[in-house]
Design goal:
alpha/beta; seven-stranded mixed β-sheet; 6 helices; about 35% helix
Amino acid sequence: MAELEQTGFGGGIESPNEPHMACVLLVDTSGSMAGEPIRSLNDSLNRFKSQTSLDQTAQRRVDIAIVSFGSAAAVVQDFTPISLMTPITLKAAGATAMGAGINLAVDMVKERNQFYNAMGTPCFKPWIFMITDGIPTDDIDSAVERVQTEERKGAHGRLKFWSLAVGNADTQILRRFSERVMQLDDMEFAGIFNWLSESMVAISVSRVGDVVNLNDLPDNARVVPSGW
């Protein structure tokens, strides 16, 4: 592995002359996720690292951060090359500070892209991929406005925000952020993280600005249509 260039905006960066993609995995760790849901999520997050790192281009170009939100938002892992992502064990407790979590994730991707620009590193559009099983217990208005603003900047936007609804999540609330809302029919996260890994690889091997066709969702996941 090449020596990492260190940053003031999170962790190091590998191969700074190649295009990079920042992705924040934003995960609900409120009390309702306790038990099998959080175990499945931990297992799938750790397999996601191994699966994505099998692709050598993705190893160099995909930078991952993990943010949790329960009663408060917290950085579980700051941006790092996917191959250096460390094993995590999330614990579920508390409320659902979704607004705080989203605002923190937006701050991080904006800061990361500023770093890429300062380094002269081309960058793909960043992703925030949120997983939640509940209804926010804090104010989300500023988070809604910020996500919508970032998605609309320029001709094609500067962010892709995804929501994965599980359990009792309210898809109408999630659609306030973005139309990219998916529903998981159970608490088995392996398939959706396989899809996410395939998506990261497909983007990383493309050229910046290309339209990348993503694979079909797993059998236990579906897109939530508009109007729901």
